[in-house]
Amino acid sequence: MIRYLSEAQVRQLLTMQDAIVQVERAFMARAQGKAFDVPRVRTRQPGGHLHILQAAAPELDFIGYKAYYIRPDKSRTSLLHLINMSQGNLEAIIQSDWLGQIRTGAATAVALRALARKQAGVLGLFGSGRHAQTQLEAACAACALSEVKVFGRDAQRVREFCDKMARQTGVTVRPAASREETVKGSDIILTITRSSEPLFDGRWLEPGQCIAAVGSNALDRREIDTHTVRRADLIVADSVQVAQHESGDLLSAYESGLVYWENLADLGQVLAGLRPGRTRDDQIILFESHGMALQDIYAGAHILRLARSQDVGLDLPIGDR
User: Fold this and answer.
1) Phi, psi of 152 (to 5 degrees)
2) What gap in Å lies between CA 20 and CA 231, rounded to an integer?
3) What angle do CA 194, 202, 105 make, to 5 degrees?
4) I need a labelling partner for 231 at 20 to 30 A (CA). Which of 14, 93, 95, 158 fits?
5) Burial of 73 by CB count in 10 Å (0-12 exposed, 13-18 middle, 19+ buried)?
6) What angle, rounded to 10 degrees, do the helices at 16-31 and 130-142 form?
């Protein structure tokens, strides 16, 4: 039997705190050679784009993939498939649009705990879309934030976002007057947009800041300029292997000789103590997040355990061996 879980059921079962725990496990397992991740493959067609990410987590006894299809109107179909490695049968199909949002936020939370200054309290946020909500929720879970400044192109949308997230988080969330104000005086700068051009001037950066760049997971997107890359004392990626394929922020810097892939660290390596993280409060650190199937596998396995224990979901009469 295959357990099928809907978007509503995933929302019911997966909390941000649990997602953070599972995503951190995924990072650590990969760094220790206990899990494996395959970069995203995209099939682009005039009617829409299909994206497939694969990973294996032997300690969970799961291998699987997430496939999501995005149409030109931005509507999407997203499904995570969990296969039992020992028995070879498909155990779960999980609708994974919300899962993708929350685990992406969880990855940022893990990064901020490891790379931001301990006393970080002010966040400058570029973006006010659906992913910005889970990013802000995750940042609040990772750091004791006192103020969030939000910049976006649509002023009304930004105001509505600030009102909603202030109520949800209990933190002061307000519109930023400008891009420069979003950056200056912030301990953390978080970008979660679909921008094709850099969002701010890296010359505005101040010592000790941590930049979490989350939106640039395609070659036609770019949130960070070369000044930011040049000024970063340390650059960490969720996966350097993935970054080499699709980091719009870093590929231009690589081509111009500003960065070398072998000098970049995976976040999991930092967590496992295999590569250094922040060593001084005045370091500027850049974290580049692009998304990994392994995060989906660990979070999905946790959702499946909860679903079985709480009798949530629908068992499909197929897939028995």
Assistant:
1) -155, 165
2) 29
3) 40
4) 158
5) exposed
6) 80
With 0-12 / 13-18 / 19 or more C-beta atoms within 10 angstroms meaning exposed / middle / buried, residue 6 is middle
Q: How many CA atoms lie within 13 A of 180 on its CB side?
A: 2
Cα separations (Å) of 294 from 22, 41, 104, 163? Answer: 10, 14, 11, 34
Token output for 67:
């496939």
Residue 9, token pair as written in the block: 């059921």
Averaged pLDDT of the chain: 96
Q: State both tokens at 260.
A: 């070398």
Half-sphere exposure of 104 (CA within 13 A, CB side): 26
Instruction: Tell me if the pTM is above 0.70.
Output: yes
Strand partners, 116: none
User: For 50-93, what is each residue's pLDDT tens digit?
Assistant: 999 999 999 999 999 999 999 998 899 999 999 999 999 999 99
